[in-house]
User: Fold this.
Amino acid sequence: MELLIKGSTEIALLPYSDFESIIGDPYQRTEQNIIDQFNSTDYKPQVIFLGLDERSKDGMTYKSHSGAPYFAIDLTPRKSVIQACEALIVTLESRGLSFSKSRMELSLPAQDAAIYAEARHMLDWNLRNPFCASCGFPTLSTNAGWKRTCPPKDLAGAVNDASKTEREPCATRGTISNLSFPRTDPTVIMAVVSADAQRILLGRQRRWPPYWYSTLAGFLEPAESVEEAVRREVWEESGIKLGRVVIHSTQPWPYPANLMIGAIGQAIPDGETIDLGNDPELDDAKWYTMDVLREALQNGTSGLGEDAPPGYKKGNLRLPPPTAIANRLMTAVADGFVSSGARM
Assistant:
């Protein structure tokens, strides 16, 4: 899902008037009326309400809240709005705006990155959940894009027979839990240090650029604690056995709906032998000294699709940029998060 940007590091913020002809007024009717008049054959681009910027004095007022409202809109040309969306995209690009081709918007300022993360997460979730998990019928986006419901009737069925609007009973309509909510998939990402705290373990995937390494990562499994997931993933991917694990920090990662839980783990003395035979995910894994790590953090950081920075010497270690939680974990280790020669 590409982001509309201005220049290379700024989100393009546009007025409602640019999109009115495509989305109409999504809040003209009450939500109950929208549910009662649901027609699964009607299509409008997904709109998400992201919140109010309360620093703005010229925005809207709702009860005790005021500020400029922010929305996210999916302009992907689909169904009945293909031509309208394509025409709008051409217009926006003629103004000097562009849709970023990068998968990871790591060059955005923190505030813009947070807006983009929320928008992408919510648009992805709505796009991936068009049907009810209980009955299989099409669902409806409600609560300004933050919930989906399975309406009791669908006017699409009345095209040839007015009596066919009612749907079959669905369990989601029988209790208070009659809505589907966005999901977040917890993921662990961990910096692994040696038992003497003098080295860090880094791995690489085959698709990454030469010399580019990072910390290990993986999904939590059901009924598993964060610490257990860190130990399991590290052993599966590298064969390294960990002792103590400490949670360091977290970062939302909307690709499509992850929360990255950053941790630092320390290997046990007799568990430092690398073995990639348990899981084929990594192409390579190595132990690096802290001096090599610090040099790479200073001269070798960049995004996956970016060139190495000035000062980088070919053949040296390359790492993710400072906006990635992997970099933050490695920086913490390089700065002494694990005391030299001490156990965490």
